[in-house]
């Protein structure tokens, strides 16, 4: 695989540009193996924060020390909500008018009580697998191309934090477990002030960026 310019991350996954991965993908399929291209997006200096949003991988509660004056955004212990300290809520106040925070009596942290729902489904451009649970909600595996419609982008930029409750694939709408989305302005501000995450943000983009995914970085995963 490395001969094609792909960098192996584990025996079944390689990371690189599409130009590097396509020959490897062809070689795997020629051997009868199933292989997918998985896309990742990262904004650059030319990308306006109004053109994207992100799902954040938050540090679990208790895993990060709370330092006076340093903004912290955490995943609650039960993974049901988001926690923030005073520095974080002050930091987001100018760019996040949508969420409502409630003070926890136990430690003084703020708990995300409510966030508005995106007005339109998130469009999944490359769905791979579908699985409906007993609650009626769907789990949709995809290749990383999740698109925010113009209406969703506008709403998210105005509210800062919102929840996606539906995905759309080929014109069909599927209810999914709520997914918290953060605006580009919120993400930019968090990164600029050193807020730590357990993994890099997972970006959702506008349709034009998804359609031009050939120039983005991709990962190839093979499955026997």
Main β sheet profile? 10 strands, mixed
Q: List the secondary-structure elements in sequence, H or E.
A: EEHEEEEHEEEEEEHEEHEHE
> What's the N-to-C terminus distance?
16 Å
Strand segment count: 16
What percent of the residues sit in helical stretches (DSSP H or I)?
Answer: 10-25%
Radius of gyration (Å): 19 Å
Give the overall form. globular
Fraction of residues in β-strands: 35-45%
- Uncertain segments are 1-5, 214-218, 220-224
Task: List the total number of helices.
Answer: 5
- Mean pLDDT, to the nearest integer, reads 86
From the helix content, strand content and strand pairing, which structural class follows? alpha+beta
Could you explain the architecture of this structure?
This protein is α+β, with helices and mostly antiparallel strands and about 220 residues long. Helix content is about 20%, strand content about 40%. The chain has helices at about 20-30, 85-90, 150-160, 185-190, 205-210, and strands at about 5-10, 15, 35-40, 50-60, 75, 80-85, 100-105, 110-115, 120-125, 125-130, 140, 145, 160-170, 170-185, 195-205, 215-224. The strands form 3 sheets. Strands 4, 5, 6, 7, 8, 9, 12, 13, 14 and 15 form a 10-stranded mixed beta sheet that branches. A 4-stranded antiparallel beta sheet has the order 1-2-16-3, covered by helices on one side. A two-stranded antiparallel ribbon has the order 10-11. A hairpin with a 6-residue loop joins strand 7 (about 100-105) and strand 8. The longest helix is centred in the N-terminal third of the chain and has 13 residues, at about 20-30. The protein is globular, with a radius of gyration of 19 Å. The relative contact order is 0.25.
